[in-house]
Structure formats: structure tokens, C-alpha cells
Amino acid sequence: MKKHLEEVKPPIVKRLPPKPLMIYDGDCGFCRKWINRWKFLTGDKVAYEAYQKAAGSFPEIPLARFEKAVQLIEPNGTVTQGAHAVIKTLALVPAFGWVLWGHDHVPGFAFIAETLYAFVAGHRHFFSSVDSCGLASADRPSTYFLSRWFFLKALALVYLTAFGSLWFQITGLVGSQGILPFRLLLSDALAQLGWKAYLDFPTLCWLNGGDGFLLFLCGGGILISILLFLDLVPALCLFFLWLFYLSLITVGQDFLGFQWDNLLLETGFLSIFLVPLTSRLKNSSREFPPRLVVFLFQWFLFRLMFSSGFVKWASGDAAWHNLTALRFHYGTQPLPTPPAWFMNQLPDWFQGVSCLYMFGVELAVPFMIFGPRRLRPAVFWILVSFQLLILLTGNYCFFNFLTLALCLFVLEDEAWPQSWREKLLPSPWNKTSGRDWPGWIRTAVAAIVLFMSALQMQATLVGRGGWVVPGRAVYEALEPFRSVNSYGLFAVMTTTRPEIIVEGSNDGKVWKAYEFKWKPGDLGTGPHWVAPYQPRLDWQMWFAALGDYRQNPWFVNFLVRILQGSPEVLGLLKINPFPEGPPRYVRAEAYDYHFTNYSEKARTGNWWKREYKGAYIHPISLKGLQGH
User: Considering only 377-381, 411-415, 607-611, which range has the smallest mean pLDDT?
Assistant: First the structure.
């Protein structure tokens, strides 16, 4: 085995450079490329010189050592070479400080780094060819200043929408007079689990069980989202946004258990480590977006997209396998948009081609997130156009908006228009505020995220049966924080659209329907545009219709609140047919809904048609419930 480069005792030079001096092979084109990139990163913190010119000034260093590897001469006279020299040089840029920490503290890190360096150095011509194929620019490394800037603006708006949406609904959903009062959840958890309840249900709502505190969390989230948009104390804002949203999700029960809620928590958690510890991001924009965290975002986007396609195919559902799923999707999804009605009218061949396109985008394109830099702008636009098509035909809350924000990490700075770069990119590059996360913290977070996400991907691909016991224990301990998750919507396509119509009566004979704000009910009322707002009761009604009321205990609670005339719950509805007082009885009827076609709509004016299926729940009254 070749000797480790650092096994030879390094020389100490007598001529002391005023700042670190990197000496390289000036005749090597591959070396010159990378030196130019390092110059871009380190600015005037490091001097660079070819050994053909500098060797005579440092006779203590043998010529063979210059020919074998780069040399870093520090102002105190010490000399390092190879991977260690490169790592010490890059560590002068705060975003890369974690690499030096890993080299000095992680067993095996230094050996692997030096081995890889020696291998690349021994095959320079080959790697120079690969490098030229994959890089958009020969003299600049990958940077993500603009991607981070736009991403944080977008994330602030998504958080603003999420908290703002909950402000109008949260008390009706889980308040004291809501459908599922959160105080009962926490008191039951504490009675059954003891102190462990605080770990299994991480929420600030342990501090206060009132409805006002729910509104405080929503209002606080709105305010902090605005501060984040204005670039004020971004790291602190991101932490509290994550904490506040986690607190609401934990007590939200059925109404805040959607994949985009987890998606926002995971995105928000990673974002905490994307920014430096400064009061204004724009004043510290010269802090390089940490490449390790950028990679975590790229890996996150890959998992999100690839898992979405894989679960559809792996489910074995015939509608996906024979490419007929989109014949049903537009009319059976929870909350269609107006264009969904028109998409539903398109011929079967178009739906099949669309389905095939979807599989291509979700199963093949994600791998190109890690592909050559020249291809990534195309990857970005494919992913963006795909999300826009979904936005056009379905109301999925802030899911697609947040996914669009994640797509920004596919683009490097050089992919943005020149005028934008000149206006928004920091200059000069070499100045840093010095207030950043310690490298070991980001490294530890990355290790946990990669470990957890690897388990998640294993579960998606082959199931959880192969998890080792320590892995399962770590996963179960961190799962309540919902900051590393699995994804994949519509694994099995719903081919029918059952709908529940809730009705009330005072005499048991004349029944009047409660109209919801957004879900289908009246046949002449078409689909609405509602995203990024999410009417969470309307969404839950879609899930309830797929089963029966025994599988959805919250639905019975909902009917009870109607009988009690709860203002908070009735505020979630569009029309209360009993404005003067609650009815004596309520019931729920089940129907199958379908989009009309062109001729049916022209004849009737209706967007929907329906067939009666039967009673979802027979008439109930408060008196009858109390009797039981």
C-alpha cells in the first residue's frame, strides 16, 4: 500500500509568507482549474503560486514533493500537502470549516481524503476530461447565493400562508369548542405515558391549554414569517417558525397530519442551518451557503420526487400500471380546480401519455439533480413545469409552492441571468462576518438527517423489516419531531368520488343541507381556486367519505358540535341552514359524484352529477347520544 502522504515528516521553512501560500503545479491544466476555483472562494486570504516559480524560495521542500502534491506554507513556517493542505485552505471559508473538523476528529476521514487525493492526482488527465464535461465554468465552484436568497423569500411566504390559514380555522378544529379539543389529547397522553408524553407530543401547548395560545402561535408565526421575509435575524426566525409549526401540528391531530405539513417542518428544520448567525442576512451574504446543507436540500428534493413515483408503481395498483390513473384523477382528487374539469374531458390516449410523462419526471429526472452542471437548468425547468401543471389542476395547499422553492437548489448562481447576479451576488467574495454555525454542528445534523432519511428510503424501497434495532430506536425517538419524513401521494388511485352531505332537521322530515366552503356539494357550484390556503375540514371530509364514520371518530364529534351550535365549528362552513339555533337532528348521506361532460354541462349548467349511495350515518340527536 502506498504510504500516506502525511506519514513523511513535513519540513519547516525559514522564509515565512505573510499569509498562507498554496504552491501548485503550474504546468498542469487540471491543477490550474481548481486553483482558480479556490482563489474564488478564499479571495485574498490565501496567496497562490506555481512551484516552477516558487520552489527556489523554499529549498527545504524537495522538488519531488512539489511534483507530487500541492503544498500549503503557513505564516508560522509549517508545511502541509495533499488533501490536508486543500482542506486547511478551504477551512478559511466558514462554509467549509466542517471539513477540517472532520479531518481532525473523525476516525478514517484523513486516510480516505488522502487516498482519494492521491488517486485523482495520479489520474489527472481522466478527471480533467470528466471535470470539463460536468462544469458550467472552469474557474468558479458551485455557489448558491441566489438560490438561498430566493428560497428564503419563498419559504417565508409559505410559512405566512400556513400560519395565516390556521388562524381562521384552528379554534374550530382543535380549540376548546372545536371538533377535537387538544386539551383532551394532552391530558390523555400525560395520564397514559407520564413524563414520556412531553417527548412523544413535542408542543409549546403544554404551557397553556387555552384557545388564545393557539391563536398566539398562529399570530406569532405570521409575524415571524414577515421578519424572515425582511431578512431580520433569519436563523432565530427559522428556529421559532419550525418550533411554532411543530407545536400546532402536534396538537392538530387528524387536521394537521398531511404530507405537506411534514414537508414544511422538514424544510424549515434544514433551513435553520442554511443561514449564518447574523442579525441581517444581506449584511452577511458573503457567508457562502454551506455546501453540506445545500446537498441535504438536493437529497431532500430527490427523495420527495423519486418516492412519489416509486410508491405509485410499487403499490401494484392496476390504474398506475396500465397508465389509466389520470382518467380518474382530475375528478376524484380532494379539491379539483376549474381546469381539472376540462382536463377530465380529454381523450384516453392523452391521459395515458400524461401518466407516462409523470413517471418519467418522478422516477428518472430526480437522478439528474446530482448530474452535470450544464444539465441542471433543464432539470430545474422540467421539475418546475411539472409542479405548475399540478398547481393548475389541483388544490394541494402549499405543497407545490414549497416544492417549487426546493427546486431552487438545483440551480447554481451561474444559471441565473447576468443582470441578477450583478445586482444580488455579494462582492467582494473574501469578506466574512465570522458569525456562523460551528462546523461540527452542521456535520452532526447532516449525519442524523442522512441516517434517518436512509432508513426512510429503505422503508420506501424494501419495507422496514430489515431495520437494525439501534436504527429503529433512533427513528422512533426522533419521529415525533417530523423533521425527516417519507413521502408519496396517491400510491393507490381512487377511481370513484364518494361525497358526504351533512343535513339537519327539526322534525326528522324536512332536511336542510350544510354547505361547505370548498368541497363539492351543490351540483351547480364548480371547483374553486383555493391553494395555497387549505380548508382542512373540507379535506378531511374527502378522507372520511372513503371509509365509514367508525373509522373517523372526529366526524361524530363534528356532528355533535353542529347539534350544540358551536360558533367555532359553524364558522368552518359556508352555509348554516339553521341560523336561529341548532337543529334537533343531524344525519349524513353518501353520494357518488362525477364531473359532467360537455353536453351535460350545456344542458343542465351543472359541473357535477351524482347518485345516491345510502346513509353514511343515520339521524342522531343530543338527547339520543346522552341516552347512550
Answer: 411-415
- DSSP for residue 362: I
- Inter-helix orientation angle 97-105/439-462, to 10°: 80
The pLDDT, as a whole number, for residue 104 is 86
Q: Is the pLDDT of residue 122 over 60?
A: yes
- pLDDT at site 284: 52
Grid cell in block for residue 180: 377535537
Backbone angles phi, psi at 286, to 5 degrees: -75, -5
Is pLDDT of 140 > 60? Answer: yes
Q: What strand order describes the sheet that includes 608-620?
A: 512-513, 498-505, 585-595, 608-620
How far does CA 243 lie from the centroid of its chain? 16
Nearest one of 42, 40, 34, 39 to 97, comparing CA atoms: 42
- On whether the CB atoms of residues 258 and 162 are closer than 8 A, the answer is no
Helix, coil or strand: residue 616: strand
Paired residues of 617 in beta bridges: 588
Instruction: Tell me the three state secondary structure of residue 342.
Output: helix
Closest by CA to 47, choosing from 73, 66, 27, is: 73
Q: Do the Cβ atoms of 531 and 397 come closer than 8 Å? A: yes
Range 539-567 burial, b when 16+ CB lie within 10 A, else e? bbbbebbeeebeebebbbebbbbbbeebe
Q: Is the pLDDT of residue 132 over 80?
A: no
User: Looking at residues 252-265, what average pLDDT do you find?
Assistant: 96
Q: Is the pLDDT of residue 3 over 70?
A: no
Residue 23: strand, helix, or coil: strand
Contact 251, 186 (CB under 8 A): yes
Concatenating the DSSP letter of every residue in 443-498 gives HHHHHHHHHHHHHHHHHHHH-STT--HHHHHHHHHHGGG--S----S-SS---S-E
Q: Distance between CA atoms of 499 and 609, rounded to whole angstroms?
A: 12
Looking at residue 282, its pLDDT comes to 67
| Mean pLDDT to the nearest integer, 146-152 | 94
SS3 336: strand
DSSP 267-318: HHHHHHTTS-S-SBTGGGTTSPPPHHHHHHHHHHHHHHHHHHHHHHHHTT-H
Euclidean distance between CA atoms 617 and 619, whole angstroms: 7
Report residue 484: phi and psi, to 5°.
-140, 115
The pTM score is 0.86
Residue carrying the nine cell digits 447574523: 278
